[in-house]
Amino acid sequence: MLVVGALYLLIPPARFVFGWIFLAVALPGIAYMAVMPLWRYRVHRWETTDQAVYTATGWLWQKWRVAPLSRIQTVDTVRGPLEQLFGLSGIKVTTASASGDLKIRGIDHRKALDVVEHLTQATQATPGDAT
Amino acid sequence: MSDEEVAWQRLSPRLIPVHLSWLVAPVVTGAGTLIGTGGKVNLQALITLVSFTIAFAIVAGVNLMRFLTTGYRITDQRLELRSGLLFRSRRSIPLDRIRSADITARPLYRVFGLASVSIGAAAHGGSANRKLSLDGVPRAQAAELRQDLLNRRAALLADPGTAAGFDESAPIAELQRSWLRYAPLTIWGVGGLFAVLGISYRTLHEMQIDPLKLGIVHDLVHAFTSVPLWLGILALLLAVAALGTLGAVGLYIEGWSGFRLEREDGGILRVRRGLLIHRSVSIEERRLRGIELVEPMLLRWGGGARLHAIASGLGSAEENRTRGALMPPAPRAEVLRVAADVLGEQESPTGLAPLRPHPRAALRRRINRGLMVTALATALFAVPAIWLPGGWRTGFLTTAGITAAVLLPAVSLLAMDAYRTLGHGMSGGYLIARSGTFAHRTVALRREGVIGLTVSRSFFQRRAGLLTLTATTAAGSGGYHVRDLATEEGLAFAEEAVPGLLTPFLERHN
């Protein structure tokens, strides 16, 4: 949107074309920004128990994922610049399955550290290679 | 025997002619061009030829360098491989981590009596795989090496009874000549044919030869334009079908000649097959999580099926497809027998209890999908008609009408069939799921191999009260779907499949 906007301002003869492109990009973009975050916020949930990790994600396509702690292989934290700015953190839990990653995004950083600690210990307590 | 005492071994020197053979292609094309143009090569062709030669020389050089710098050895504990000139690498795999040792022999390798051994090993902790490849050892040595590695592995796994050599008992399955009748039913479409045509056209064009001016092509084009259009199209369709059949039979023979599936000591399933390229794939039974029965439309009508292993440690998705194949297209009953044998069951779990049907809403989804396809295909002709002048408009509208008339019954039948195919169930220790429109797929997954569950619901599924349950596993494609279950029923099924996993996260309304 910014690129097209800049082009619109910088190249006056082509304003007609870039004006329409700008609208075509901006209107769906704004609609997306208005709907998606709130919708996702309503859907996203997560929970860990002594047996399993559970996440609910998505908006149009929604997914609930469960993985037993005994099958977890690695627990990572992921923090992008924006997440650092807002004191948030993301957790990625991988299992031996190629399609079994669980991601918990945007939870309080200190809370995330606790969860990682909990999951890591549970994982270490399980023998075997979790397949 | 300490690690230092074992001598490093080299790949076979017979690799030198194999690698030098890369230079044959540019020499032949060069000579061909000279002869074809009568010695007067223009600049463009010359540049093409020279860059062609340089590229092939580089490939040959790199391969030769790899041959010169590669060495391997097997010590008591590990298999070691060193290679590289600029970037020297030294890799080692503990013998007890070796999961597979596959032998492949490409045609050129076989001319020189060589084969490649690729050794798969589990990286620490599970799914990630590492592969070592000994590319070019004498064939007898390759077989010996494979047996040796698997024996040592079995011995290290502290199972002395299983370390002894071959099991000479009868194989689980062998290729029957009569199975060849299923080969024509495996036509994989005409796409490949067009790709071949396209490539030959481009190659000829690059060499300044216009294919349309060649005698044979010219005659064909002339023959096509001199008969009525419908006859021409019919002949073309027949020709494409004949070529496709020929290709399918050829592929079947190439891929499955000498097919033999056997159980070796040490709990290993071994598949050997191939005419030009010999392949030998070993799958540890311990890593087997289930099987997948695949019945593509044509093959199904002919009463045939294929069989795939769902096993961990086979590699990428592509490798899973080629290495997981347990049976060629063969009679369904035979495939089911092999499935049962491989899994160590009396009867194949896919054929036991009748599967539970899915709700009617699943049928509505399939019909809607078919209608969407029909609408799009019709619109492709109907929409341009709006802007077209009279005569053209009628033509386009007629085509749109015919498209709709043909597609509507076809998609309805497909939707009905896809709905009838849908089914799920539990049979002994297996979770069974069946689905598919063109190719029916029946998956039998060991329940203890399920390492997680995913419930996904699209917008339309939520409105229809449906969900798709995915059982994730360390094997095969990583996740197997049970599509379009009713919400309540689906969650109940999930609890039944993996008791207790979902329970803490469910709320009951009664």
Automatic annotation (TrEMBL), chain A:
Keyword terms of this UniProt record: Membrane, Transmembrane, Transmembrane helix
Transmembrane segments: 16-35
Domain YdbS-like PH: 41-118
Top-rank taxon: Bacteria
Protein name: PH domain-containing protein
Organism: Kitasatospora cystarginea
UniProtKB/TrEMBL annotation, chain B:
Top-rank taxon: Bacteria
A Pfam family matched in the record: bPH_2
Keyword match DNA-binding: no
Keyword RNA-binding among UniProt keywords: no
Alphabetical keyword list: Membrane, Transmembrane, Transmembrane helix
InterPro entries, A to Z: UCP026631 (IPR014529), YdbS-like_PH (IPR005182)
TM ranges: 20-39, 45-68, 185-204, 229-253, 370-390, 396-416
PANTHER family, per the entry: UPF0699 TRANSMEMBRANE PROTEIN YDBS, UPF0699 TRANSMEMBRANE PROTEIN YDBT
Protein name: PH domain-containing protein
Species the sequence originates in: Kitasatospora cystarginea
